[in-house]
Amino acid sequence: MDSDGTRDARATHANPVPRPAGPPEGGALPPMPTAPPGAPPKPDGSAFLAWLRASRPEAAPGVWRLGHRPRPELEPERTPARQLLSGALIAFLVGWLVWSLLWNGYLGGWWVLPLQLLVPDSWRNSGSNVALAFLWYGYYTLIALAILSVVGRLGRWGEVWRRYGPPAWRPTGAVAERPPAPEQDPAEWPQLRRAGAQEAAERLAAEARAGLMRDVDHARIDRAWQGVRSGRHPLATFTRAVLTDGAAACLHPSGERDLPARHARHDLLTGQVRLGTTADDPRNPYHYRGAGLGLGTDLLGTSLLAVGPAGSGKTAAVVRPLAESLCLHALAGRASVVAVGAAGAGLGAADAYDVVVRIGHPESVHDLDLYGGTTDPDEAAAILAEALVGDLADPHPGSDSRRSATVLAQLLGPFRAVHDRFPSVPELRQLLDGVPGPLAALRKALTDTGQDSLLRELDARERQLAHPGDVATVLADRIALLDRPAFAPFFDTSGQTRPFSLTALDHPVRVRIDLPQRGHADASRILARLVLAQFTAAVSAREDRSLFACLLLDDASGAVTPEAVRGIQRLRSAGAGVVLSLRTLDDVPRPLRGPLLGATGCRMALSGLTPWDGQDFAEVWGKEWTETRDVTDRQIIAETPAGKAVHMLRRVITGQAPTARAITVRQVERERWSASELAHGVPPGHAVLSLTTVRGEHAPPLLVDLRG
Prior knowledge:
This protein is an alpha/beta fold. It contains 25 helices and 16 strands.
């Protein structure tokens, strides 16, 4: 079989063993093939270089910057097409009439006086017909151009040309860009050259031209270079790694250079993921209309709350693209991500993550650390109390679950002192129930080791067991939801499993946690609160906050507590953020809805929202001063034939009856988006989104098409 798929004629000969073919007639051997038959050609890197050199102008928060063409802040006044074309035609006819009157002498000969006064007599009386023709017809041409200039300005011919001429035929973004200078070309790595790493820059530029570099490679190496500039890594180590591995230098610990598949459009140079297109709607600011919507870590650092009913696109159009973007950032060494959702929620394939915790699934490779990887009993008790009974605390912002944390600390401290580990779920349930055997064994071990302070903690716990209002009963009932046969292999503290702890967020790790939503809804809500509490505690204790950390909670029902709201408020200064999605704000206690909307800088209301949910969004988005015009039209009645003719001409030009218009302009304060508009005026597949960056820049509520 030849390389083009045809069978050699010698192979079909009657002789079963074909004879070797001799050299060709010319005596020269064919060249050695550079690739095996059927191998696809290697890319030349032009697509990557075009992406790298594309324009990314500075833009307002949330604007997709790749290839963006800025628009003015205010919308220019647009003349109706009929009026514009009629005016242009009338201006042309007026100019033609003026020229005809001048040319035929109906207006006299005064218009040639400048030529007679300024041109010497010797030129006009030279006797050369060619010179005279050139002189007079040049003057005629100058007068005609002056008339065309005046009538063209009056008839707005320039606007007609821009709206209907070749400039309007050119597709958007088709403007050819001038190639950058070598010292400003990002493909040549000028920052490395200025620092003296010439060889590393040459290697990376060659790999980019050869098509061996990807956007993740560029972002990852740029992140490593930032570490060199900040002094965390030596320049010699960075240069050695680049010269050895080229575009594959400074790899992620997983060894991956890209995700198995991408379902959204990403721009790692700006760190954005495109979620849709800002609608061309009068309620959107003019410079946002038609622009792409891109979210990056500068916006996610203020946290995002998305509210919409089932089927409105929270997971497919918002959470999954954000999870995919953060996974790419993790491969580039810029971020760590934890995606939490029900099993089968569609948060991405398992191959896109480093750790997949499938709670309740017998084939899960990893386990979840119930205590968040801490060794401090008080910290572990606070986190566990928030997970177990955080939703039972007084929903007002000033309340907390400190009493439950105290009860847990009275048991966790003595148990860890004796066993050098925290209790498992069955052991903790027995201690909370006050079973005599485990408490007596724990007391004996503490007595033998002489730990009197911990004995006092245990004595206090035993005294409180006899009180009817002891919160340990509620804690025992809640921990019993995790003490089920389906969860028996999980939450192990003996060291026999591979528990994942959120203290690993110091590294660019990609984690997906599948909750057992089906059949264990209450346990799933406990685990969601547990992960949220562990996340806020872990990111606040990090030393390197340049690594962005983000938690995506696909269903935050029951996870919003007073302590959770306070934790979300602290994330912005910790270089972290959360993405919460809710079917309705009714899943949040009424006293916490305002603080939750205030704690998140980015708020999204999807289509299908209820009016009472829309009321909460309308209140947090506030009002704005707008200019309203009250127009009163009074039709003018013509009584003379000339007036009727003028009115008829005016109707033909403007398409409207002649009227006398009275306009009253007022400044009024109105809601940006009312509850009724949010409930009934948002089309399917759309959402209203307000944005805030970590630097404090704001974007007003925007109507966004999430399908664009």
